Amino acid sequence: MDPSVTQDPSRPAARDRAPGAIGRLGSFPAPAVTAALTIFYLVACHLGLRLASINQSATPVWPGTGIAFAAFLIIGPGAWPAILLGAFLVNLATAGTAATSIGIAVGNTLEGFVGAWLVERWAGGRRLFERPQHVFKFVGLAGVISTALSATIGVTSLALGGFAPWGRFGSVWFTWWLGNMSGDLMVAPFLILWFLEPRIRFSQAQAFEALTLLTSLILVGLLVFGGFLPADGGAYPLEFLCIPFLVWVAFRFGPRETVTATLTLAAIAVFGTMRGQGPFHRPDRNESLLLLQAFLGTSSVMALALAAVVRERGRGRQELERQAAELERSNADLQHFAAIASHDLREPLRVVTSFVELLARRYRGRLDADADEYIRYAVEGASRMRDMIDGVLAVSKAGRQSPAMALIDCGGPLETAIANLRHPIDESRAIITRGEMPRLVADPIQLAQVFQNLIDNALKFRGPGAPEVRIGARKDGQVWIFSVGDNGIGIPPEWTGRLFGLFRRLHTKEEYPGIGAGLAICRNVVERHGGRIWVTSQPGVGSTFFFTLPAAPSEDAGRTVR
What DSSP string runs through 419-479? Predict the structure, then answer.
């Protein structure tokens, strides 16, 4: 139940059909969009800086990185004025001079632009959350590389301006980098996914499940991070109680719902940790938030990757279903065409055959020997064509007719096949031996056709002695395996897998009569019953044809001796 996979997977979302956003250099959004983005960035970053402790400009919670990355990926390079202005104003109001604020703002702007450019080029662009490999590339390209650029430029600007001691460069840089990374891993996916899929298309059952999931996640989040557990609860890894709910939403919904659940949990966790609650609380507030952000960032990435796997499998399943439907429709059209073509060919062929045979009877011996031979070739060719058309019609009919399934005694169709072949059996003095036949669900007429074709082949391709045909069945798990063996001429190994195609013949018609349609009909019938057919053979010793049919749904069907 993934509502995000309901659209045609071959068509991009409506807001994602344009070329890559990073490729539209020189394009700028409307002034209202720029102003709104500046205010949004300014307010979000101001809230993040309220959690700073190691340095006024370095916070372990920095949503601005995610906002900048999402803006550059969605809007394009034209988002830079809003990001640069917002970053400059928020840093100017916190600490430092205009020079240091400009340096930090430039780093924050480059961070978003570079991250979006890398993702656009190597990680799928806006659709990076639809494939797990793109999610992990996003972590490396935007979450690690571009954020390191901002941290380096920002901390260097503070150190040069005297607002951060060089001796603490490493600790300030690490806090800056990890805070920016958490913004990329949690805020950016939320903004991008909701921009691309703003509409909620839940059925009533999905809405109820989503509400249940959200309520459960909030309750567990409050239980773990809200101080409702005993004071010594922090000694246990209780934060992992939240993981099953993130896995639940990743499996049952899409990446958009997954990142929403992760951000909801993050808000509860940050609020609780700031109040001194939860498993990540430490005496040092900066350390507490760094540990929390590491846990939340890792959880967010794994949940997003899992959701991407589920979505990818959903698209693959839809594509397989579409191809299966197209293949079934194509096969039906082909069978219909074969039936119509064969039927329409029969009448002109009948005319040709009749006049050629009349010509042979009337002028045999009255012309020279060459003319008699040519007429004989024409009669034989017309006869072969008639047999081939009849074979195509038989195979097409077997493929088009839905089996009339019923619980039957398989001994009945076998008796019918033997009765139909009574004359060639008596003529060849064949010995027919039969084992126990089961009761199962099948079409008796089509099953009799399978038995008849296989027994007829055993009689036809016989050796110098009297034919011996052995017919049996044995149960193997959930299927019955039928066998029709003989002591005939056998089949070369290279031909055993090629005999079941239409008009596939190992011998010429002069050696053995037939057109090569019987085994194709057998395969068609068996496969439409949910089974398979194959042959084992040894030249000069004989062949055994096997085919399977599903067992009866209840064991009380039993077996009946015929």
Answer: HHTHHHHHHHT-EEEE--EEEEEE-HHHHHHHHHHHHHHHHHT--SS--EEEEEEEEETTE
- Tokens 């990926």 correspond to 73
Neighbours of 531 (CB within 10 A): 20
Strand-by-strand arrangement of the 406-409 sheet: 406-409, 437-442, 559-560
Q: How far is CA 51 from CA 44, 58, 177, 285, 560, in A?
A: 12, 9, 15, 9, 81
Residue 490's nearest CA partner among 415, 442, 531, 542 is 542
Report residue 507: phi and psi, to 5°. Answer: -120, 165
Residue 373 CA to residue 364 CA, distance in Å, equals 10
The tens-digit pLDDT sequence of the chain (562 residues) is 444 444 444 444 444 444 444 444 346 678 899 999 999 999 999 999 999 988 889 999 999 999 999 999 999 999 999 999 999 999 998 878 999 999 999 999 999 999 999 999 999 999 999 999 999 999 999 999 999 999 999 999 999 999 999 999 999 999 999 999 999 999 999 999 999 999 998 999 999 999 999 999 999 999 999 877 655 545 577 888 999 999 999 999 999 999 999 999 999 999 999 988 888 988 898 999 999 999 999 999 999 999 999 988 888 888 888 888 877 776 666 666 666 665 666 667 777 778 777 877 787 777 787 777 777 778 777 776 666 666 566 655 555 555 678 899 999 999 989 998 888 898 889 999 999 899 999 988 889 889 988 998 899 888 788 899 999 999 998 999 999 999 988 888 877 766 776 655 565 555 555 556 778 888 888 988 889 999 998 888 899 999 999 998 764 444 443 3
Query: How far, in Å, CA of 154 to CA of 147, rounded?
Result: 10
Displacement of CA 205 from its chain's centroid (Å): 24
The DSSP bridge pattern shows strands 542-550 and 533-538 to be antiparallel
3-state helix, strand, coil in the chain (%, to 5): 65, 10, 25
DSSP string, 108-176: HHHHHHHHHHHHHHHS-GGGGGGSHHHHHHHIIIIIIIIHHHHHHHHHHHHHHTTSS-GGGHHHHHHHH
The letter for the amino acid at 184 is D
The model's pTM = 0.63
The count of C-alpha atoms lying within 13 angstroms of the C-alpha of 473, restricted to the half-sphere facing its C-beta, is: 26
- Please name which of 293, 294, 296, 273 lies closest in space to residue 285, comparing C-alpha atoms: 273
CA 67 – CA 59 distance, rounded (Å): 16
Residue pair 163/277 in contact by the 8 Å Cβ criterion: no
Non-local (6+) Cβ contacts of 412 within 8 A are 444, 448
Tokens coding 261: 């659940």
Among 361, 366, 129, 379, which Cα is nearest to 256's?
A: 129
